[in-house]
Amino acid sequence: MKKVTFDCDTGETVELDMTKEEIAELDQNANTPPTLTQEELLLLALTDTQLRLAEQQALTDQLALAISQIQIGGAPE
């Protein structure tokens, strides 16, 4: 059976001789999202944690500024 597919290495559309089972496996793999490695998952978690910490720091800075303004007799803007 013939299967038309895109060859990422050459950048060309190619026609391959494949069995029905091979075509089904290829189609199933094409529709499956890539699986992240443990390292990629850890980096993603680290990045998420860093973003959350930055958000918390920004809120802490805003709170400290508001407290300082109240202490010197000004109203927060």
Please describe the topology of this protein.
Elements: E1 2-7, E2 12-17, H1 20-30, H2 38-71
Antiparallel strand pairs: 1-2
In short:
This protein is an alpha+beta fold and 77 residues long. The longest helix is centred in the C-terminal third of the chain and has 34 residues. It is rod-shaped, with a radius of gyration of 27 Å.
In percent, how helical is the residue content?
55-70%
> How many β-strand runs?
2
User: What does the main sheet amount to?
Assistant: 2 strands, antiparallel
Cα gyration radius (Å): 27 Å
CA(first)-CA(last) distance: 72 Å
Question: Which band does the percent of strand residues land in?
Answer: 15-25%
Helix run count: 2
Instruction: Please state the average pLDDT score.
Output: 85
Low-confidence stretches: none
Strand order of the largest sheet: 1-2
Secondary structure category = alpha+beta
What would you call the shape? Answer: rod-shaped
The ordered H/E elements are EEHH
